[in-house]
Amino acid sequence: MIPHACILVAGGAGFVGSSLALRLRAANPEARIVVADNLKRRGSEWNLPRLAAARVEFVHADIRRPDDLVIPKTRFDLIVDCSAEPSVLAAYESGPSYVVDTNLVGSVNLFDLARRDGADVVFISTSRVYPVAAIEAIAYEEAPTRFVIAPEQAIRGVTSAGIGEDFPLEGARSLYGTTKLACEMILEEYAQMYGLRYVIDRCGVITGPWQMGKVDQGVFALWMGRHYFKRPLSFIGYGGTGKQVRDFVAVDELADLVLDQIGRIDALPRRVYNVGGGTASSLSLLELTQLCEEVTGNRVEMTRVAENRPSDVRLYITDNARVTGDLNWFPCQTPKQTMEQLYSWIRENERLVAPLWS
Q: Which spans in 40-156 are helix H?
């Protein structure tokens, strides 16, 4: 049972936010659950009927505007912040204003609402807080289908298990990552000054049904969608080999962790957790392509682009040692199971999602 009676999920019509809101409802049928979202991302409106069916209230709100967060006769005792412009490339393409105003100013508005109400806070952060140059400096080896973390490393916080929370933070990381790191620090200050209880999860790639994947964010859903509809894809960067690697966690397994953290929020140490799929749930783009071909039975045209995109990284794998030690959480779902779930969801909602990927 989740010990909160009135819950706000910011960004709650998005992929992660809607998934968490529905799991919060299942865990506590009597709670009042409100999601706030500006519906900027295409496809977020498709989640509204699912939320309404679960008796989750929707408020069309923009977290950049504090007045949007004021709901008459409502005081929240838990705020889950899933709101963000999650694309690393967005600030390069459209300028910094929306990224900074949403990811930094908007989240601070939520923290101040938590201060007013005395609410607990769950902040969904990102592995992108780690600097690009430091990640690129990780020693690696090149295997037939992927880049691999080398056994010997000169940088602290990285082992064959992946990147831990003590990985260096000095250096540039993209405006997306910078705004998220700034929010982590501000939330820690709010907790110290105003006594807020909080959880910070630095998530790697999250995927699963209802993710509207794009080239710049949501790559695993994008890959499955393009294979399902037999549309072309590209290996971009690192010579166009497709050997760059990411780990990923299924959104349901992330929800398992978040619900456990909320239930134990008073007893948990106030520290950051890296949360991801780890080595067992990691794929290169080349391996992902092979898995999508296996699941769908389809092959697609693949373009190879040698040049890297801004702020891209060769590999990222999460070391979950801290979160496993504190909460006994670790992902169990295999990459194939996750991709099969995406395939089944696309097949069941083919007409709805076809405009995204066909």
A: 48-53, 90-94, 97-100, 107-117, 132-136
Residues 248 and 281: beta-carbon distance below 8 Å: yes
Q: Exposed, middle or buried: residue 270 (CB in 10 Å: 0-12, 13-18, 19+)?
A: middle
Contact 2, 80 (CB under 8 A): no
What is the mean pLDDT of each successive set of 10 residues along the chain, which is 358 residues long?
A: 84 96 96 95 91 97 94 94 88 89 96 97 97 98 98 96 97 96 98 96 96 87 97 97 97 98 93 97 98 98 95 96 97 97 97 91
- CA 175/CA 101 separation, integer angstroms: 11
- CA–CA gap between residue 74 and residue 110 (Å, rounded): 14
Which pTM does this prediction carry? 0.96
User: What 8-state DSSP symbol labels residue 57?
Assistant: E
Contact by Cβ (8 Å): 183, 129: no
**Residue 352, Cβ neighbours under 10 Å: how many?**
12
Give the pairing of strands 147-149 and 140-142: antiparallel
**Residues paired with residue 273 on neighbouring β-strands, in sequence order:** 201
CB 247 within 8 Å of CB 278: yes
Question: What is the amino acid identity at position 269?
Answer: P
